[in-house]
Amino acid sequence: MTALVTPPATTERPLADRRHHRPLVLLATLGGAVAAASTLVVCMAVGMIGWFLTDAGAHGAPRDGLRTGALGWLMAHGSGVLVQGVHVTAVPLGLTLVCGWTVWRTAHRVGDAISGHGPDVDRIADGERDWTVPTAAALFAAGYIVVTVVTASLASTATTAPSTGRAVLWSLGLVLFLGLPALAVGSGRAAIWASRLPPGVPPALAAAWAVLRLFLLVSALTVLTALVLDLGTALNVLSQLGTDAQGAVLYTLLSLLLLPNAVLFGGAYLLGPGFAVGAGTLVTPGAVVLGPLPLFPLLAALPGTGPTPVWTALLVALGPLVAAVAVARAQRLQPTLRWEEGALRGCAAGMGAGVLLGLLTALAGGAVGPGRMRVVAPFAQDVLLHAVTAFGIGGLAGGLAMTLWQRRAARTVADEGAGTP
């Protein structure tokens, strides 16, 4: 009779389990380096294409195009650069968004790969400390910063002088505000931490994000509408620059990279404080004072200097209105029948969105040229104050209005149920 032999027990984890226990130190460090290097390589490739399109490679060398792309990548990390002896500190936020999206996606995948490290849910619930996400974030930041420092050292010259320190600080900010949350979400820790929050906090955060997104959308539509209405002026600027088809493509690409900056400028305008396009200038719904402007197509969206139409003063009502609509829509997905909860959730969401908008607005400006063009920025502190106030009031109104609607709907359902035989 054939003997039935029990196979020896194996200590190997199943394949699905091993996939989440990959080496934390290696993956996190490599993930940070890959997140930085991937966008850097794309920028350098675009720099090479731009170098060839400008004069078909007749002047300079390919390394000049590569260096230009690397400097653009560093500028997206706040490094600034010298252009013919003039400091340019404005950050192309469109490129920064691309870098931030890459950080999020890469960190999310790293988080999923290391999710099996550290204590499990039960041990965390028992109070055991879990250092998986902080450790991975520190290693991720280290890999990202190494690429940043190496790039700055290789691309920097005496005539460009990007700030390595500022680039490192922006790199840390990207990892802290995007990489760390992505690691937490990918590893499943975010769900564990969210379960410990008070019940009203997640809906308030979701509503705050809805307010910010909707207001930025309204600001973007405002900027694009203004640009379309003055499209002839933008085309005239391109003709004055004497650009050919290749030059027009490059100017269009640069305008797209600066479009998020323009959206934040537009948000400052809609809220009332406005912005400056040069020292001693002012652009608000109530007054427009401009001086000579550089030839740049995106500036065609600026209103004409002088008295403003009466209706532009009504634009400041868009802030509270947007907040009310966004909070009401968010509360529709996560309803509440308590007056105090609807009011507190809406007001907190609006004020939180105002703080976020104020912080983003502070990043939108900077020096773009010599002399008076060293001051091109929204009035960030005033924007913060106006945004917190306008969004807070609008969020409060939207929360109360939706609570009233949901209470009436619940009462109607209860009455119909009571009348059913």
Short description:
By secondary structure, this protein is mainly alpha-helical.
Description of the molecule:
The protein folds into two domains: 17-196, no CATH class; 202-414, no CATH class. It starts with 14 loop residues before the first helix and ends with a helix. Mean pLDDT is 87; it is low at 1-13. It contains 15 helices and six strands. A hairpin with a 4-residue loop joins strand 4 and strand 5. Helix content is 65%, strand content 4%. It has 421 residues and is mostly helical. The protein has helices spanning 15-18, 24-55, 62-75, 93-113, 121-125, 132-155, 164-187, 189-195, 201-229, 231-240, 245-257, 259-271, 318-333, 339-361, 380-419, and strands at residues 81-83, 86-88, 275-277, 282-283, 288-289, 376-378.
Helical residue percent band: 55-70%
Instruction: Give, in spatial order, the strands making up the sheet with the most strands.
Output: 1-2
The total domain count is 2
Mean pLDDT: 87
Count of helices? 15
By helix and strand content, what is the structural category? mainly alpha
Overall body shape: flat
The ordered H/E elements are HHHEEHHHHHHHHHEEEHHEH
| Gyration radius, in Å | 26 Å
Q: Sketch the major β-sheet.
A: 2 strands, antiparallel
List the defining traits of the structure above.
421 residues, mainly alpha, 2 domains, two-stranded antiparallel sheet, two-stranded antiparallel ribbon, 15 helices, 6 strands, 65% helix, disordered N terminus
